[in-house]
Amino acid sequence: MTDDLCDLTARELVTLYGARRASPVDVMKAVLERTERLDPAVNAFCQLADDALDLARASESRWQRGAPLGPLDGIPVSIKDNISIAGLPTRFGSLATTPDIASSDSPCVARLREAGAICFGKTTLPDFAHKIVTDSPLTGVTRNPWDLSRTPGGSSGGAAAAVALGLGPIAIGTDGGGSIRIPAAFTGTFGFKPSFGRVPHAPRGPFGMLSHAGPMTRCVEDAAQTLSVISRPDSRDWYALPFDGADYVRGLSCQPVPRGVRIAYSPTLGLPLTVEPEIHEAVIRATTTFGGLGAYVAASDPPGVAHCNAIHTTLWRACCRQLTDDLSSGRATLDPSLQAYADAGNVISREALLGALIKRGELGAAVNAFFEQYDLVICPVYPGVALPLAGPESNGELFPHFTAWCNQLGLPAASLYVGMSATRVPVSIQIVGGRHADALVLWASHVLELAFGRAPFGELPRTLSAPETRATAV
User: Fold this and answer.
1) Which superfamily, per CATH, for 3-317+321-325+327-459?
2) Does residue 359 have an active-site annotation?
3) In which band, very low, low, confident or very high, does the pLDDT at 205 lie, cut at 50, 70 and 90?
4) CB atoms < 10 A from the CB of 351, how many?
5) pLDDT value of residue 331
6) Packing angle between helix 10-18 and helix 220-230, nearest 10 degrees?
7) Residues 269/305, Cβ–Cβ less than 8 Å
8) Alpha helix locations (H) across 231-335?
9) Which run of H or E residues covers position 80?
10) 146 near 425, Cβ under 8 Å?
11) Bond preceding residue 104 cis, omega within 30 of 0
């Protein structure tokens, strides 16, 4: 089999497995070979598992017996390095951690293993996932495969770059303010942040009230299939929603037709921000597409997004302070931008913190009422396309203006590719649903994917070279 296996979706690979036209061993070898060849330029991975081929052989045997564990059996999946894989260190992208071997899998990894998926490597992130670009003192700079002078976003930047390059068809990222959706938008991949608690996540740590684990893929169906697996219950997460056994792949075709669906569109979410014309046009084009299919569409800003962003600033700084307080040593090795967030958290009073949490609940009620009028919101993921590596983003000064409100309110949200910019980098839009409307957001994403197609990943080069991107781990 050839390197072309790396360009197939998980669904396409499973079809080949069932027809005996390819095996998990073929695919795993192809992914590892492409990773060895292309990853030095983009720096998407910080660790690879030694047992990947052994797991592929076990999966191959199950397929040969006609007894696969499910529709992800034998599919390579990468895992962001703030999620534990038993047998590998979990470094959180930070020199302040030690390379201790994890003794157990995090919930989503455990569910993927039970389904036969091959969790074959850990992807890069900024220091403790604290910012929306991916570079750290531990692993260095991660680059965007569409343009190596640009960032893939963060904090799940390594995951996004890996999927775009075909270094595994599925990645698991985390999102505390936009960390799945912004990298997905910058790389043209599909990123889905589930409702808060939909995917059990443990240990949650200082960012536990904001963080969501979710899939990053090349197509909506693969994300839906992954969500059906990783949303299965795990008692280690006290915040987890009751398990409802939803089949999110089936939901892609079982939701209502667009006629009757109520869509609000908002190019700025009511914020005083300048959105690049290509992003504005993408929002209008996506909305017009739904209108042409019979949906009701109207311009309307969800209430309180600016207030949500202010709350996010308060809570994020407080979380960073708690994180650094919990470190027994090593604060001096942290990214300076993380240290700055923690220092800002030191001046937040208990009254201000409690006030932010109370206001958060009030805004949640107002947004719940908004979603009684509308089923979905279409808006930007970020004001522009993938940013250059050099600039204020390197210092952690950028803010997830259009994404953080979904974390504050626990809303399901997706980043979906809709076209290429004049500079040949992806353009994406965000689809947001009301609380627990995960299936509806995935359905809407699938409708637009059928209309606009997927990113032209085949245009990405098969050979890459870039300046040295890795730092020296200690």
Assistant:
1) Amidase signature (AS) domain (3.90.1300.10)
2) no
3) confident
4) 8
5) 87
6) 80
7) yes
8) 248-254, 277-292, 305-326
9) strand 76-80
10) yes
11) no
pLDDT in tens, 252-289: 987 667 888 999 999 999 999 999 999 999 999 999 99
pLDDT for residue 1: 47
- Tell me: pLDDT of 212 over 90: yes
Mark whether 155 is an active-site residue: yes
SS3 174: strand
SS3 category, 158: helix
- Residue 353 token pair: 């913190």
The per-residue pLDDT for 327 is 87
Catalytic annotation, pick one of 80, 122, 131, 193: 80
Q: How many CB atoms lie within 10 A of CB 13?
A: 24
Residues 23, 78, 155, 211: which is the catalytic one?
A: 155
Q: Which of helix, strand or coil describes residue 173?
A: strand
- DSSP letter at 167 equals S
* 82: Cβ contacts below 8 Å, ≥ 6 apart: 90, 92, 93, 125, 128, 129, 174
pLDDT at 95 over 50: yes
Minimum mean pLDDT range among 26-30, 158-162, 388-392, 446-450: 388-392
Residue 113 has phi, psi (to 5 degrees) of -65, -40
pLDDT one-digit tens code per residue, 218-257:
999 999 999 999 999 999 999 999 999 999 999 998 766 7
179 in catalytic set: yes
Measured distance CA(339)–CA(61) in Å, rounded: 49
In whole angstroms, how far apart are CA 191 and each of 103, 412, 417? 29, 11, 10
- The two tokens of residue 72 are 């992800």
**Coil/strand/helix, residue 60:** helix
Let me know: does 472 contact 46? Beta carbons within 8 Å. Answer: no
The residue type at 85: I
Q: What is the greatest pairwise CA distance in the chain?
A: 63
Place of tokens 């910019």: 421
| Catalytic pick among 94, 179, 231, 337 | 179
Extract the tokens encoding 197.
């608690």
- pLDDT surpassing 50 at residue 312: yes
How many other β-carbons are positioned within 10 Å of the β-carbon of residue 424?
A: 11
Instruction: Name the pLDDT band for 86 (thresholds 50, 70, 90).
Output: very high
C-alpha dihedral sign at 281, 411, 318, 205: negative
- The span from the CA of 368 to the CA of 293, in Å, is 26
pLDDT for residue 2: 60
pTM given for the model: 0.97
Instruction: Indicate the domain borders of the chain.
Output: 3-317+321-325+327-459
Cβ atoms 72, 117 nearer than 8 A = yes
